[in-house]
Amino acid sequence: MPVRSQLDHTIALDDFWEASSLDEQRAQAFAARLLAYEDSGMAVHSFTPPGAPIALRPVRDRLQRLFDRRRSQREFDHRPLRRRDVERILAATGPVHDGRRRPRRVVPEAGGIDTIHVYAVVRNAEGPLAGKTVRYDHRAHTATILRPVPDDAELRNLFLFDIPTLPQMVIVFVVDLAGVVARYGPRGGRFALQQVGHAAQNVGLRLATDRRKGYVLGGGLDAAILHTLGLAHTEARYGGAVACGR
């Protein structure tokens, strides 16, 4: 690919990320847009093809029951997460460590490039990570403490929480596009977002398995969150977050 063309694609990807990011001013406009939205209420979706649909047999196996247990739950109590809860939720975002030389991946990675990096704001939990903001190393299954957890008012502002009780922990996905875009070009941006979705799905399934609560956060102040994680002067992008608790 010519240098100029590659540069144009990189700029376009940066423009997309910037246009979809939120700061305090944009967050207000985002909230106003949600309040003003009205569903068109079409009786038949425009994608529906002609012809009679064919009924399929229901699925009632163990995995389907796990899917059925998943809920987007935004009410949390005041009990701390157990230390083991924190460890199990973090492990859902990385390889399975079972004593093998090369751990099995539980989140697909395009080209084996570490595009997604996981951080956690452990607001209310037992164990050594309690009250700490940490970076999770999915290869070594370790967590490094960065700073204390922001106070509740700052957390509400950072992640645009509008719920009465805050979650015990927030899992944050940070995207490093450099490697995946260098290898795949602009389409690497799509792969990065797919990987965020895979990791968030794994967290949701872990919460459902352990009968914990949580939901995927639709908003967040991109630059402020990256600053909180110590990434303000890097090429990192805020990829999304999952509120976790009980």
Structure description:
A hairpin with a 4-residue loop joins strand 2 and strand 3 (142-148). The model has no long low-confidence stretch (mean pLDDT 89). This protein is an alpha+beta fold and 246 residues long. Helix content is 38%, strand content 17%. The protein has a single domain (3-32, 69-245), classed as NADH Oxidase. The protein is built from eight helices and six strands, in the order H-H-H-H-E-E-E-H-E-H-H-E-H-E. The longest helix is centred in the last third of the chain and has 22 residues, at 188-209. The chain has a six-stranded antiparallel beta sheet, with helices on both faces.
Question: What keyword list fits this structure?
Answer:
6-stranded antiparallel β-sheet; single chain; 246 residues; NADH Oxidase; alpha+beta
Task: Describe what is shown at a glance.
A 6-stranded antiparallel beta sheet has the order 3-2-1-4-6-5, with helices on both faces. It is 38% helix and 17% strand.
Taken as a percent bin, the fraction of beta residues is 15-25%
> Could you spell the SSE succession in H and E letters?
HHHHEEEHEHHEHE
Q: Determine the CATH topology.
A: NADH Oxidase
The CATH architecture can be given as: 3-Layer(aba) Sandwich
Q: Indicate the low-confidence ranges by residue numbers.
A: none
Main sheet: which strands, in order across?
Answer: 3-2-1-4-6-5
- On the 0-100 scale, what is the average pLDDT? 89
> In CATH's first tier, which class applies?
Alpha Beta
Please, what is the CATH homologous superfamily?
NADH Oxidase
Distance between the termini: 50 Å
Overall, the morphology is: globular
Radius of gyration: 20 Å
Helix-strand category? alpha+beta
Number of strands: 6
Domains, number: 1
Q: Could you describe the largest sheet, including whether it forms a barrel?
A: 6 strands, antiparallel
Instruction: Tally the helices.
Output: 8
Percentage of residues assigned to helices:
25-40%
